[in-house]
Amino acid sequence: MNVSSKKEFTPLEIDRIIEMAWEDRTPFDAIKFQFGLSEADVKVLMKKELKFSSYKLWRKRVENCKTKHLAKRVEGIDRFKCKLQRAITNNKISKR
To answer: Does the model's pTM come out above 0.70?
Structure first.
């Protein structure tokens, strides 16, 4: 699937999708609900928007993260984002 064939996203929406994809507690189902992108579409978008080394790090992180898939989640995790997680803007992590 081609991400661009589904919808053209604004830079702000792309930043939000990338932010949600990096968050450990945000499942792919939440991205699909909010933006209509499947897990495969998110992978395509991430590969397109990130440097290749960053994309590889993200893929490794996602493969080892059980909270990205609702079916694999441990019972009791009911939030998407840690209260202490740093804000991400313009694809750069800002300091507190």
So the answer is: no
